[in-house]
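User: Some background: our group keeps a shared notebook of sequences we're curious about, and every so often someone picks one and asks for a predicted structure to add to the entry. Today it's my turn. The entry only has the sequence so far, pasted here. Could you supply the structure so I can complete it?
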Amino acid sequence: MKTIQFNWFCKSSWRKSAKNTAVCLLGCAIGDNGAILFFQLFHVHFPMILIMATAMIMGLLTSITLETILLIKQMPFWLALKVALGMSVISMLMMESSANIMSILFSGGNRLILTWESIIPSWAIGYLSAWVYNYYQLKKHGKACHG
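Assistant: Of course. Here's the predicted structure to add to the notebook entry:
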């Protein structure tokens, strides 16, 4: 049985995966923080678990939309949507869940309050968790969710 060596030190793959992860972060942050801001501004009182679930769903939807728009430049719409859904959902879920957990910790347990003190570190943690996964996927499969 042949053993495959995995290289964690490829600078070009780290750069490419960093770019891909940044696009994912942008999409996730817009949807997630937009949903939280909506709940915050309109004083909607839901259990925190429902707020987090709604925010994560919105983050996933905006990220998939953004990635599909970027991919349309390279391929037909339905293929772009399929690639965006297939390549990045796990990465987005990792990013969303780690960012939301950190946001709750940084905001003292109150997910409904958006502050720079909670947003910036939580999305940094979300980015880092997804970046490692994206690098691994890029090296393992030689594919990225977008160019």
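Suggested note for the entry: Residues 12-141 form one domain. The chain has a mean pLDDT of 86.
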